């Protein structure tokens, strides 16, 4: 299982900085060294973040039969405890989730206004705000990769991006046994391009920087008030020919209830993910063949729910 040896000191990126070149250089360093960083001054008001937490709690505190009326169809809606297996060696993750996809999609499921009157409006507002932050971040990531700042826009990655807001609830009481540790979220790296995570102050998130080494060394990620936690997904690792790192992470039970919400910013489904010119050379040829973004994500998501 590995050891947890320390609290990780992640880099802090200021999205409001006027020195974009310096910011891009810091992002490059963070993505090659850690695959994780904090994002501050992102422009999402604290009041909105707290309202999303409040509305998320309202939903997850409903009786299970009410939540199951919005049960996951495709990649939209509610999944109960143990429905997901991020690590195939575990029995399933001790968390509930709710997925909200692109706002124009007719596949989204929403609690009734009678039950949760302002829920949909709040979630839509947050979705739009965090999508805007993600797009600003993508321009800096392009610069960090020695590309033009509008590179990802030009190739159509951000035209109708496949972006999901995922609300997460980890119950405080988890079943435990001597034979097996029950995880809030078992060890995994995210599948897509970029994840923007907001967490409450309850600990539990850990990362493993050296995913190919055994035993794994796990480090705690501390909560920083007002900051979003950003991490790189497997798709961006693939796109950058493994220059940028997708990092293993997990959520450990702490005996306390925990809420978070992750925003997965992934490209348009038809966007071709092929080795970026700035990330390959004669001595460092492409490690992966080109693949459509949508095909890659579907393969990964289906594996998560088929165990």
From TrEMBL:
UniProt keywords (A-Z) are: Iron, Metal-binding, Oxidoreductase
- Gene3D superfamilies the record matches: B-lactam Antibiotic, Isopenicillin N Synthase, Chain (2.60.120.330)
Q: Name the Gene Ontology molecular function terms of this record.
A: dioxygenase activity; metal ion binding; oxidoreductase activity, acting on paired donors, with incorporation or reduction of molecular oxygen
Q: Which PROSITE patterns match?
A: FE2OG_OXY
Give the superkingdom in one word: Eukaryota
Span of domain Fe2OG dioxygenase: 161-267
User: What's this protein's family per the entry?
Assistant: Belongs to the iron/ascorbate-dependent oxidoreductase family.
Q: What name has this protein been given in UniProt?
A: Fe2OG dioxygenase domain-containing protein
What taxonomic classification does the UniProt entry list for its organism? Eukaryota, Viridiplantae, Streptophyta, Embryophyta, Tracheophyta
């Amino acid at each position: 299982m590995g050891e947890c040896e320390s609290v990780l000191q992640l880099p802090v990126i200021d999205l409001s900085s006027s020195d974009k070149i310096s910011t891009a250089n810091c992002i490059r360093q963070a993505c090659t060294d850690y695959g994780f960083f904090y994002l501050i001054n992102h422009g999402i008001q604290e009041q909105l973040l707290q309202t999303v937490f409040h509305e998320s709690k309202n939903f997850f505190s409903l009786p299970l039969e009410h939540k199951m009326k919005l049960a996951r169809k495709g990649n939209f809606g509610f999944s109960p405890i143990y429905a997901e297996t991020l690590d195939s060696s575990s029995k399933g993750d001790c968390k509930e989730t709710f997925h909200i996809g692109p706002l124009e999609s007719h596949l989204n499921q929403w609690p009734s206004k009678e039950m949760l009157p302002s829920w949909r409006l709040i979630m839509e507002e947050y979705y739009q705000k965090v999508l805007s932050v993600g797009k600003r971040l993508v321009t800096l990531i392009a610069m960090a990769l020695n590309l033009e700042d509008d590179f990802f826009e030009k190739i159509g990655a951000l035209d109708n991006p496949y972006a999901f807001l995922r609300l997460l609830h980890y119950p405080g009481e988890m079943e435990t046994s001597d034979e097996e540790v029950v995880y809030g979220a078992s060890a995994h790296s995210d599948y897509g391009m970029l994840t923007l995570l907001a967490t409450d102050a309850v600990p539990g998130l850990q990362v493993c920087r050296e995913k190919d080494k055994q035993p794994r060394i796990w480090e705690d990620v501390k909560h920083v008030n007002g900051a979003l936690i950003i991490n790189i997904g497997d798709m961006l690792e693939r796109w950058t020919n493994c220059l940028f790192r997708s990092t293993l992470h997990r959520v450990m039970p702490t005996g306390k209830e925990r809420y978070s919400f992750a925003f997965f910013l992934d490209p348009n489904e038809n966007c071709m993910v092929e080795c970026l010119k700035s990330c390959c050379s004669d001595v460092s040829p492409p490690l992966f063949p080109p693949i459509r973004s949508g095909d890659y994500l579907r393969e990964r998501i289906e594996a998560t729910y088929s165990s």
